[in-house]
Write a structure and sequence with these properties.
Elements: E1 3-7, H1 11-23, E2 27-30, H2 37-44, E3 48-52, H3 60-68, E4 75-79, H4 84-92, E5 97-100, H5 105-120, E6 121-122, E7 125-126, E8 128-131, E9 134-137, E10 142-145, E11 148-151, H6 154-165, E12 171-172, H7 173-181, H8 189-206, E13 213-215, E14 219-221
Parallel strand pairs: 1-2, 1-3, 3-4, 4-5
Antiparallel strand pairs: 6-7, 8-9, 9-10, 10-11, 12-14, 13-14
């Protein structure tokens, strides 16, 4: 299920958007602390952000810039401030699309679907997974972070894929070994440890620190 963060200070609009998106099968959350939008974004790890421009404390351009420091998640601006300068600013600051208020919910839904499809799907199947700015490309087994890209081995790729599929949940070592065993290679406990150490080193080379955490005696988790 795709998660969408709604950064909108008009409670009526935010609630209406949330209810509508949930009817379409999305998981929606409305930002609550407009001084800590980046923190809420990090905790929720959405697949898409709906961002108003006129917000308390800091405007939507500021929060878009902050999000872009760690993530390439699609950001769709919603605003009545729809003159050319604001539209250009929204895109230059890292936004992916702009919808003018008042808007038709069905038109907005189509735009959301298009953004999600372009970002996470290819020819009807998911091609990219994203978590906290790290992009796993399922079509070529590579990872990208802040415009830096590295290739993964088959086992590195499979380990990262299962952990990202289950982000926020502890994945037992036995489950990971079972996934690797499907490659017709014998994987024991020590081999998994070696693979995990190698994968972590590659992620650190990309600038991603402590992305995979160990739960001693249980398994691993991406929080």
């Amino acid at each position: 299920m795709y998660k969408i963060l709604i950064v909108e200070d008009d409670e009526t609009i935010a609630r209406l958007l949330g209810e509508h998106l949930e009817k379409w099968g999305y998981q929606a959350r409305c930002a609550e602390n407009f001084k800590q939008v980046a923190k809420e974004f990090k905790e929720y790890a959405p697949h898409l952000v709906l961002m108003d421009i006129g917000l308390p404390f800091y405007n939507g351009f500021y929060w878009c810039t902050e999000i872009r420091k760690t993530s390439n998640v699609p950001i769709l601006f919603l605003s009545s401030m729809s003159d050319n300068m604001n539209i250009v600013m929204a895109i230059q600051m890292g936004g992916d699309d702009f919808v003018t208020k008042p808007f038709d919910l069905n038109v907005l839904t189509v735009k959301i679907q298009a953004l999600l499809r372009r970002t996470y799907a290819f020819q009807g199947s998911a091609s990219v997974m994203e978590h906290k700015g790290l992009m796993l490309n399922l079509s070529d087994a590579s990872v990208t972070f802040q415009n830096r890209k590295i290739e993964l081995t088959k086992n590195d790729y499979k380990i990262l894929q299962i952990l990202m599929e289950r982000a926020g949940t502890i994945v037992k070592r036995e489950e990971i070994m079972q996934r690797l065993w499907e490659s017709d290679e014998f994987i024991d406990d020590n081999t998994l440890t070696v693979n995990m150490t190698r994968l972590r080193k590659k992620l650190e080379e990309l600038g991603v620190q402590e992305f995979i955490k160990t739960k001693k005696g249980i398994g691993y988790i991406i929080e």
